[in-house]
Fold:
Amino acid sequence: MTQVTVAVCNPGNQEKRWKGLFFVDTGAIDCLVPGNRLREVGIKPVGKRTYELADGTDAVRDIGVAQVEFMSEFVGATVISGKDNVEPILGVTALESVEIEIDPQNQRLKPLPTVRLKIVRRLKIDD
Structure:
């Protein structure tokens, strides 16, 4: 089980932030944050998504957009508004966006030496 301290910030006002210890879950796409913490920093829902929970059931949750900071990196992320007492989760999209991976042997996060920027396929105008 890997955990990391994460700051969730309001993108429109960096002064509004909440820090917490997040469980790193490479099986989760988005970040899950206690709803009361999102309200405290002024992050409002911009929509809803249906997520599959660990037990296989579906749940519709409010989502918003936040700046997420961890390990001296920051990224814009979709945040799921969870119940007020939910354990926060750092999802894989935030990790991959800043090229940080889990070292499974040591259960720690480690930055990759460089951010990958490569063209997978060049498109022609005729494509």
The chain has a mean pLDDT of 86. The longest helix spans residues 35-40.
